[in-house]
Design brief:
single chain; about 325 residues; alpha+beta; Phosphorylase Kinase, domain 1; Aminoglycoside 3'-phosphotransferase, Chain: A, domain 2; 2 domains; three-stranded antiparallel β-sheet; 10 helices; 10 strands
């Protein structure tokens, strides 16, 4: 099967979407397209409610969509106040110019993106609370499709990330990322037996976490990168995005991790591992941007985090990550 990240996203026109809605879902509404990495997503505005129509990348497996739906059901069963996207009806299959696509109608999860609300340090602790609560709700969930061998966004698979180094554009860039891969590999080999694994959202960032008018996190969207990996990777992913956008990365991360740990307790090895998993997530971010912007130069969404990720990686290269480890452990003990 072709690579999910090398396959062009769907390119349905609004007229085609309108016809699809009427023929397969028997609904009408005003159609607006939303940004998407590899799929095509529309919001369907109706008098009584808004819905999301998601046309998946043609390289996407049906089992990955079923994984997302099963995870959402599990979360709603355990914590129904967490707002998550849920498929309305069945996943349908359609063809366009000989190419197969899976299409879903999904409830519109209302809320503001955390990234749009000018977050302060105190807000990061609230986000940590929410993501810890989310991990609690997802705890115990498993689905065969979450075992995604060599999935490009799995920061727990350091050897696979290492194989992608040649996608970077310069020797200097390769040396910078190699520095973090080597550090992480040494650390993870020492403590791997203490690190729990489970199914995680794997993309809990400020563009996917929704907040209300009081900046209270109320929901999370975009389950497309779900994977079975390290439990500690869940908060580490969010740490990477917080650090990229903060003027004081360490203090913001400490606030976030205190909030997470208060709702979902981590052991000391997991706490220490988060620093290294964060650097691997940042490394994947720059590798994927370097690779995919050449494949799809018109998609500016692919490079949204590339520059801040490089800035942070170069800053972290000059930092003592053992100090960051100790700061995290101390913060969560107090």
């Amino acid at each position: 099967m072709p690579s999910l990240f090398m396959t062009p996203p769907p390119r349905f026109s609004k007229q085609e979407v309108s016809a699809l809605l009427q023929s397969d879902f028997n609904i009408e509404g005003n159609i607006s397209e939303l940004y998407s990495d590899r799929d095509q997503v529309f919001i369907i505005s109706q008098p009584n409610e808004d819905l999301i129509l998601k046309i998946s990348n043609p390289a996407e497996k049906r089992s990955i969509l079923e994984l997302q739906d099963a995870a959402a059901d599990h979360i709603m069963k355990n914590d129904p106040e967490i707002r998550v996207p849920r498929t309305r009806g069945e996943i349908i299959q359609c063809e366009r110019k000989g190419i197969r696509f899976f299409v879903r109608l999904i409830n519109h999860v209302r809320g503001d993106l955390f990234s749009d609300r000018d977050p302060k340090k105190s807000d990061y602790e609230k986000i940590g609370n929410f993501l810890g609560r989310f991990s609690t709700a997802l705890n115990g969930f498993f689905h065969d499709a979450a075992i995604r061998k060599d999935f490009d966004w799995d920061a727990g698979n350091i050897s696979h990330v290492s194989e992608r180094l040649s996608l970077l554009s310069s020797k200097s860039d390769i040396e910078t990322v190699s520095h973090f891969l080597n550090n992480a590999s040494r650390f993870m080999d020492q403590l791997k037996t203490d690190l729990r694994t489970c199914v995680i959202h794997n993309d809990g960032n400020e563009h996917n976490i929704l907040v209300n008018n009081n900046k209270k996190a109320i929901g999370i969207i975009d389950f497309g990168d779900m994977i079975h990996s390290y439990q500690a990777l869940e908060p580490a992913v969010c740490m990477a995005y917080i650090a990229m956008s903060s003027t004081d990365p360490l203090e913001s991360i400490l606030a976030f991790t205190r909030g997470y740990h208060s709702c979902f307790e981590l052991n000391e090895s997991e706490i220490r591992s988060m620093v290294y998993l964060m650097t691997i997530r940042l490394s994947i971010t720059v590798i994927m941007a370097s690779w995919r912007k050449k494949l799809f130069p018109e998609n500016k969404y692919l490079t949204i985090s590339e520059k801040p990720a490089w800035v942070l990686l170069r800053k972290l290269k000059k930092s003592d990550l053992a100090f960051w480890e100790d700061a995290l452990v101390h913060s969560m003990r107090n």
